[in-house]
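Subject: for your reference before the review

Hello V.,

The reviewers asked for a structural picture of the protein, and I figured it would be easier to keep everything in one thread rather than splitting it across files. Below is the amino acid sequence we used in the manuscript, unchanged from the supplementary table.
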Amino acid sequence: MPKSHAARPLQLAAALLSLAAAPAAARAQSTPIASPKLEVERYTLPNGLTVLLSEDKSTPIVAVDLWYHVGSKNEKPGRTGFAHLFEHMMFEGSEHVPDGEHLKLIEGAGGDINGSTTEDRTNYYDVVPSSELETALWLESDRMGYLLPVLTPEKLNTQRDVVKNERRQRVDNQPFGSQADIIPAAIYPATNPYSWSVIGSMADLSAASVDDVKDFFRTYYAPNNATLAIVGDFDNAKAKAWVAKYFAGIPSGPAITRPAIDPVTLSANKRLVLEDTKARLPQIEFVWPTVGGDSPDELALEGLASVLTRDRTSRLAKLLVYDRQLATNVNARQGSDENAGEFYIRVSPRPDASLTEIERLVDSTVASMAATAPSEREVQRLKNYTVVGAISGLQSVLDKAEQLLDGQTFYGDPTHLVDVDLPAYRALTPADIHRVAAKYLASPHVVLNMVPAGKLDLIANPQLSYTNVTPGAAAPASK
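And here is what came back from the structure prediction:
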């Protein structure tokens, strides 16, 4: 669920939580809290750049947030990790901004700067004092329009090494970190662009050339594939004038051909085993292919995850962590990309807990959700939590900018959160939760047993056939 905002989020949160705890009769007489209204002006420059303006005079800061509609989904086999590598390249300086100067100017003004890459989009943001809005706009426009003249093999090699080191830290040297590669490959066929991780492989990162980078930039880092949000304390007329001054002269790029994504189902359960020398305790994860943000079922699946593990009274958390004390933590979530998604249940067992017993209890709980609708009380609680989180999530100018950009980029509507998502959440029924549980969680799925190296005796149901997918083996071993 995207984040959300209101002018007085703490008071609204307290009101909603007290509403959840109130007797039924009192709740029936309560007035529902209205969704916040997001004031936003949207327009498009002749070169195709979409601009979102949303004023918030509560504090003298402003967020400049630029989203490019490109992520790892737009890569090709053999060039995985390229979108993330390019995110780093955008911090290597541009024609009028020497390497390191962008960061120096923003942080020197007391601001914050960063970027990130997902399967579907790449973002760059600057949060600055209101007096520095023009500077932030100039900096972002320069790397959009004038990166290529100063892009060199030396800069590429520098950032290639940075990204490789990031992969070592986040994946290769983390206990069970390679699941980031294993799960997508198990869910999706190799031809599906969601079958590889955002960070990519070492081999593909090594293969990237300067010409690859330049072609990627010309295709995707153009105004017609970007949306700019300015949120916070600013003068509307000045902001528009600066946007025109710095961005209007950047030429439009080619039309974007986006990959076609076919729905995915598994013909049978996949049982996988991952061994890791860095791990001391096992973990187990269950993953079902589901849907992305482009499906009306996404919100009900998020609601299902909340019913299972939102807090200590949720079904799986109560059963595994508190009643049976087999786990220290259990988390369910619907992971939605733009065009595909997965439903995850991950369990961290207590020492000496049986993964076989944990799997049996997870299976029985999931089966009960597929067989019978949850109670009205369970659904009302998840809706209360969701509305509170959505409203309080819009407190900062950056979070608000992110939600406007998410709505515009993926739905063509910057206020999608409050105009579509929140009403849909409020309308969720027990029947909706039951329907998606039966539709998706009664289907074949992946079971990933993660154990310390050499501890295959710890896996769940070892009598069943499985494939050992531990990296470094000559070939995946099956039993």
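For the response letter, the relevant points are probably these. The longest strand covers residues 327-336. Residues 1-30 have pLDDT under 50 and may be disordered.

Happy to draft the paragraph if you're swamped.

O.
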